[in-house]
Design brief:
homodimer, alpha/beta, Molybdenum Cofactor Biosythetic Enzyme, Chain A, Alpha-Beta Plaits, 3 domains, 6-stranded mixed beta sheet, 5-stranded mixed beta sheet
Chain lengths: 411, 411
């Protein structure tokens, strides 16, 4: 099944905001066997919106549209959809009640602007927006379906899962069952992995596909299965996941669409271990990634960002003579940083980084992108150096991931 | 002048990677008076690419295309463009030399794949890619121009500025001069700002426009001027910026497209002050934002991420009885955290946060989104509480910005 996406908003076109909704939709529909044909980003303009719909329907029978529904803009999109599909704007009491409830939760009263959200095209089926005031609208004509969702990412994401996907499944997959499983694989590069899984892939039953989704430092494997025989599909998927675990051994770092920070968190929680980080070149980014995971306070105690050498010495207890002798970007320094932060915060595990993120500060011996990192757990401590490509942001990002992977290698 | 953007790549369509190039292009072309008509994201597929070009040319005379030029994919895009514009793939010695130089800088030798980059359509003008192996290609036919750029963001960005924009100016703006100025305004919300600048806006000379670009906690004002009379334009722009500074007083936080972390950094550097952060709910994100700025080691000493209360007490010296009496998310605790990290790291200034980022941990009295923050500079210390909307990521993000703005209010 193919579909198209249209993201509406002047702010998207001029680059003030990035459209992340289309990607979110794709990541949730691809595993269901849905294939994105095109994404269009268009202005808050009736003519542009109509042309975009025409083009999308020329490609596919299903169009998911996001944005253009804010109270100051809804006349354009709602009015345009109303004209496009026929009908007129009518007052919807359920939507009005929903708007009042959502606003009350935010401690706000409904004003004139937000009240207009209750006017919806008579030709659409309304899906109540549980987390915002703009209703989701489902239009259908001559076998073509268009679903209009709000553009605020957390509203799009919540209502895609709670409201839109269930209706899509009901409408397009009656009688079919879709299952998917994701495995995270660490420490094997994609080409080696493909060789190792060559036979496995050839032997996949009809209707089941394997996809490789490589990221820096890891590969996600996604199995998607579609079948009208739910029981066989279920048994096949279970058997295949078991086979993958056997083939991959310790390289398989867990099921699911986990981030590296989530994998680290799960391992720590399982083993009842605590973590602290000591960061120089990553500047707090590892702590930020770890604490971006809800519930991380179970295992994460804290971090010392030791940007200045004085902080490395005075707070983390790094030997000043080592810094003088071999520099702050060195193996002895990251080892002492990791051990030092564990001692300071009383944790079982530690991660440390020290490197040159650039653009300045590089030398012939230690060019920009040189990052020393250490990880320790109990008495065990390991250190390694990486030479990472890209600009400052990429070096910080990659170094953060690599340092977490280093810890995983000893957990 | 209108233009369209096409981003090519299966990885963009399926949401594995987000297209940030189109936004980057828009942010750089809008100030030059160029208006984006549509963005299309399409698959690595010849038919899809051709249809996207047809559609883009139906809208606009200029199309900027990114992606689809990796050595494993270039057959599709280059071959497609070659067919579309006529001509054949020919060997280009300059491109081959450039590929060799770029690979040598990376310490790599040219393999068979990368060598194919030197084959380019005979109908295009080549712009050498200074930071990658895929050449930029400029096609022109019947007054229509298509520019194909690589998709790797840092290559797109670098070569847009160095190679593509200069040629666009030469081709489309001969005789015209374009100037722009950006001001960052802090502490005035957009609607108040619009009222205060009402008269200023009405009196703007012909050809000069003012745009409001609001972000959480600040508004960017962008003046764009286009004229054939370079001298008058220059004088007008200077005069208008001065007028804006007069009208805005201390609310104007500096010229340029600066991030909040950059504004903080510039103020600190100007005043020869140093900074440390003590972060609980922001989990190191403020340190990460501050250190994402190149050269931040001039003023940033480090951070203590005190996720656990023990770290607040033992490392930052927060009074345990205060935590017991009023909780870690409270005014006395953030005040002591800010003062504590300044003492620990010997800095002039400090920022501290403690809050409930969610989804768990909220209470009736302190719901999710409640964040206490403090900032100090010398003897002066201020604290405030914010109730921030959204999910965990948004709360962390907003709290980080608000805490930096709090420091700015006393710098």
């Amino acid at each position: 099944m193919k579909y198209s996406t249209i993201a509406i908003g002047d702010e998207l076109l001029i680059g003030q905001v990035t459209d992340t909704n289309s990607g979110w939709i794709a990541r949730h529909l691809t595993p269901l066997g849905w294939e994105p044909a095109t994404v269009q980003v268009v202005a808050d303009d009736a003519g542009e919106i109509e042309r975009a719909i025409d083009r999308a329907f020329a490609d596919t029978d299903v169009v998911l549209m996001t944005g253009g529904l804010g109270p100051t803009k809804d006349d354009i999109t709602k009015g345009t959809l109303c004209r496009y599909f026929g009908g007129e704007l009518v007052h919807n009491a359920d939507v009005e009640r929903n708007v009042e409830q959502v606003m009350a939760k935010r401690g706000l009263t409904v004003n004139e602007y937000t009240r207009t959200q209750a006017m919806v095209p008579s030709t659409c089926r309304v899906i109540q927006n549980e987390v915002g005031t703009a209703p989701i609208m489902w239009f259908e004509r001559d076998g073509k379906v268009l679903i209009s969702m709000p553009g605020v990412p957390h509203e799009t994401r919540t209502m895609l899962e709670r409201g839109v996907i269930p209706l899509l499944l009901e409408r397009y997959h009656s009688g079919e069952d879709i299952e998917f499983r994701t495995l995270v694989v660490i420490g094997i590069i994609e080409s080696d992995l493909a060789m190792r899984l060559d036979e496995f892939e050839r032997a996949l039953p009809k209707g089941i596909h394997l996809a490789y989704l490589p990221e820096p430092g890891l590969v996600r494997l996604r199995l998607t299965g579609i079948s009208t025989d739910r029981e066989t599909l279920n048994a096949d998927m279970e058997r295949l996941v078991e086979q993958l675990h056997e083939l991959l051994g310790t390289a398989s770092a867990g099921d699911g669409d986990l981030s590296v920070a989530e994998i680290v968190g799960n391992r720590l929680r399982d083993r009842k271990l605590t973590l602290a980080t000591a960061e120089s070149c990553t500047g707090g980014n590892i702590a930020h990634l770890i604490t971006s995971v809800a519930g991380s306070s179970d295992y994460f105690m804290g971090s010392v960002v030791s940007y200045a050498n004085e902080v490395k010495m005075n707070v983390l207890g790094v030997n000043g003579s080592d810094i003088e002798a071999v520099g702050a970007v060195s193996e002895p320094v990251v080892r002492q940083m990791a051990a030092g932060v564990c001692r300071l915060m009383g944790t079982d595990c530690g991660i440390a980084t020290s490197g040159i993120a650039g653009p300045g500060g590089g030398t012939d011996e230690k060019p920009v992108g040189t990052v020393w990192m250490a990880a320790c757990c109990g008495d065990r401590i390991v250190a390694t150096v990486k030479h990472l490509p890209g600009d400052r942001a990429r070096v910080i990002d990659r170094a953060s991931t690599e340092a977490m992977l280093l810890l995983l290698s000893i957990l």
